[in-house]
Amino acid sequence: MRKQRGLLIVLSGPSGVGKGTVRKELFSQPNTNYEYSISMTTRLPREGEVDEVDYFFKTRNEFEELIEQDQLLEWAEFVGNYYGTPLEYVNKMRDAGRDVFLEIEVQGAAQVRAKVPDGLFIFLAPPSLTDLETRLIGRGTETDDVIASRLQAARQELEMMNLYDYVVENDLVEHACERINAIIIAEHCKRERVEKRYFDMLKENA
Ligand SMILES: Nc1nc2c(ncn2[C@@H]2O[C@H](COP(=O)(O)OP(=O)(O)O)[C@@H](O)[C@H]2O)c(=O)[nH]1
Ligand SMILES: Nc1ncnc2c1ncn2[C@@H]1O[C@H](COP(=O)(O)OP(=O)(O)O)[C@@H](O)[C@H]1O
């Protein structure tokens, strides 16, 4: 059977909603066809974060060079730091039939929407703004100032959720993962409808 080109799955949502937690849970499940695209950032590593695993950590100069050289599928500045997606990896994985996950904020997602119209756009939403604040504070990785800026950004990000194909509430991690897996399976089935091999099959049997 010929392999479909892999999906480009964009997972967005405000800082602290649980994108990283949900994505790690999805990737820990057996029999998935997912690849995670590690982003570039100028943010400093948090305790425990590893270069080339969590992010490719770059200086601002290095990042600006990548922009100049057109090596990023999208990039954005979020609360004082650059973040961007390496283009080559995404294309290579999709060509190999793998579904590629981008975990990115809303400005970058809008750029991907314009460049990759067949992408699958999923917005992860918190049960409430209070839950979001509790999670962001509970994670304990940012200073109070940064938390306040991220909560401010969250209000604008939540207003963008209507631009996504799906909104998934992250009430419980397992439930959010079940919904995301279901969306991806449905998306593959939808794309099967236009697979050439089915038209060929019908012609052969005419
Ligand atoms: N546009 C864009 N956003 C990204 C990329 N990588 C991460 N982000 C987003 O940047 C925001 C800040 O990321 P980070 O500092 O790691 O904080 P965290 O997501 O709250 O743990 C989050 O919304 C990420 O999803 C990227 O390659 N491009
Ligand atoms: N469904 C959930 N219920 C309660 N806490 C959650 C849930 N999902 C994630 N968290 C917690 O919220 C915090 C932020 O999650 P994280 O995955 O780092 O968010 P993001 O990547 O969107 O910034 C973490 O401490 C995580 O353990």
From TrEMBL:
Pfam families: Guanylate_kin. Residues 6-185 form the Guanylate kinase-like domain. One of its GO terms (molecular function) is ATP binding. Signal peptide: none annotated. Its main location: cytoplasm. ATP binds at residues 13-20. It is found in: Cytoplasm. Essential for recycling GMP and indirectly, cGMP. Belongs to the guanylate kinase family. This is Guanylate kinase.
